[in-house]
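PROTEIN DATA CARD
Card holder: 8-amino-7-oxononanoate synthase
Chain length: 379
Origin: Rubripirellula amarantea
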Amino acid sequence: MSLSKFDHLAKSLDELGRLGRDRRLVTRIPNGLQFRQDGHTIVNFGSNDYLGLAQRQQQRSAYVGSGASALVCGWTDHHERLADTIARLESTEAAVVFPSGFAACSGTMATLPQAGDLILSDELNHASIIDGCRLSRADCIVYPHRDTNTLQNILSTQRSKYVHVWMVTDSVFSMDGHIAPLHDLCDIAEQFDANVVVDEAHATGVLGEHGSGACEALDVKSRVPVRIGTLSKAIGSQGGFVAGPRVVIDYLINRCRTLIFSTSLSPAATIAAIESFERLQSEPELRNRVTALAKEVRLQLSLPPVSELEAAIPIIPLMVGAERKATELSGALLKLGYYVPAIRPPTVPDGTSRLRISVSAGHSDEMVDGLIEAINQVR
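Structure generated from the sequence above:
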C-alpha cells in the first residue's frame, strides 16, 4: 500500500499547521476536576461536568464521564492506551476511538472522501456508512451486493473523472452473515488506484488468528489502508474506532465532526475494552467456542452450505420471507423462553424478513440445544 494516496491529506494537515490550526490529542490522567499532564497537576476548567457528577464517579474504580470532547480534555490515558492496543492488533501506524461505531463509520465516510472524489458503496452496507456517504461532498454510487463485476465496469468508465476513489464495504454483513469479497475488492482497488475502507464491526474479536477481523482472516490487512470497528459487539464494551496510517488518523482528529464535536468515550468503556482485548489474546478458546457453536447451529438447522469462513460467523439468519410470519415465529420462540429477533423491512429488503440468531461463547450447550429444539417445534 502506497502512502502517496494520502498526500492530499498530508498537504491539508501541513496547511493547518502553517495557520496554527492543527490539533492533537493530549493525554490527561483524570482526577476529578484536576488531571495530571506531563507530570504536573492541572485544575480543569475545560470540562462539561457542570454539576460535578462525573468527578464523583471518578472516585470509583471505573470512571463514568469523560467530561468533554477528545480535543478539549476528554482524551485520557485510558483512551490513549486503548488506541495503542487497537493499532497493535490491526498492525497500523495509529488508531483513534469514537463514542460509537456509528460515529466512527459515518464520520470517516463524511470526512475522508472530498469534492471531486467518488465513493463506491455496497448496497447492503450499514446505515452508518450510508449516512456518512450522504454527508460527504463526494459523488457516491451504490453497487449491487458483492457484485465485483459491476464495480469493475463502473471504474472502467468513471475512474478518470475523479481525483480519488473510495471503495467502502462491511466485512461481515450484519443481517446475512455474508463476507465481502475482500481479495477481489483489493485487486480492483490496486488496478484503478482506489482506496479500500472496511468496516469490521461484526468481525472484530471473532475472525482471524488474533481476532482482528476478516481482513486478517483473508490476509489482506496490508492492502486495506483504513479499517473501522466497534467496541460494542464481540469486545463487549461501547464505542468505535478507526485504524490506519498516521496521516489518516491525524486528518480525522482535525476534521472529523463526529469525533471533534462529541463527548469522548466514557473512561469506563475504554477500560472495559482494554480488558477485553487482553482476553482476546489470552483466551483464544473464546473464539474457538463461538465458531464451533455457529457451525453446530447451522448444521442442526440444516441451513444451506456456506464457505468455511462464513460458517464461523456467529450471525445466523433463518430466512422466513413474510414480515408477519417472522414476528409470529419470534413471538412463539419467546413464549418458549428464547429471544430471537425478527428482522423486517426497512432493515432488510421486502420479502426477506428473517429471524437472526446470534450465538455467543457464553451460551451453554444446553442453551443451544434448547434453541434448536424450540425452532424445530415452531417452524
